[in-house]
Amino acid sequence: MLMLVSPAKSLDEKTPVQTPLHTQGVLLKQAAKLIDELQLIGPDEIGQLMHISEKLSELNYQRYQDWQLPFPPEQAKQAAWLFKGDVYQGLDAYSLSEQGVDYIQTHLRILSGLYGLLKPCDDMLPYRLEMGTKFVNQKGKDLYTFWGAKITELLNAELAHQNSKTVVNLASMEYFKAVKPKLLNARIITPVFKDWKNGKYKIISFYAKRARGLMARYAADNLLENTEDLKFLMSMVMALMPNHPVRPSGSLLAKLQNRCKVTI
What residue numbers bound the domain in which 103 lies? Predict the structure, then answer.
């Protein structure tokens, strides 16, 4: 079983990481080619391209200018610990056990506009480049064209190595569009997380994002190897509990069953 998540805009560059494991992304040569082109554009163009503030434009311009291989050790950080958005608050990699870290390194992959596909412990430099950015590059009109089938091919290699035929898609639509389902040698399962509000179940972005990370965390805490086991998560994924691991009592479980719904 391989789980896919999106990256995050917000980053945590300062908190120390508990694992000594550092790995290197497989698609760094392709990332370097993107950087070569990104280094040619100025802050104003970056701001227009990404619809971000002047301050963020200047920050990311400098990030592109400073990007280099090999990564300076004092600037690089493992992906699952550098990303800080709602998904990663649900995952809470900082509190994973050694077994949990090993689990996500095997079973979790992060889709990225710049790096293509990352393992949780792959080192990376801070950046901002969303997959949906219409950045015209040497290969075409956007990043989907740039990455083509490379991400899918890498996923197929990972699946073959694991002898697995299942992908659990916890990524956003924007990022999963970088995967080519018809070429993927796997069954794709896309959980839908809904919260009870105003008399009906509906997707609430904040809770749904947190729940994606919490599902990956639940799988890591319990070392799950198949999607059937994920069904136990259906009543507890909506980030209603502040602490991990997720093992609610019977009474709390009953309350959660009335509040949220997950379709797998």
Answer: 2-263
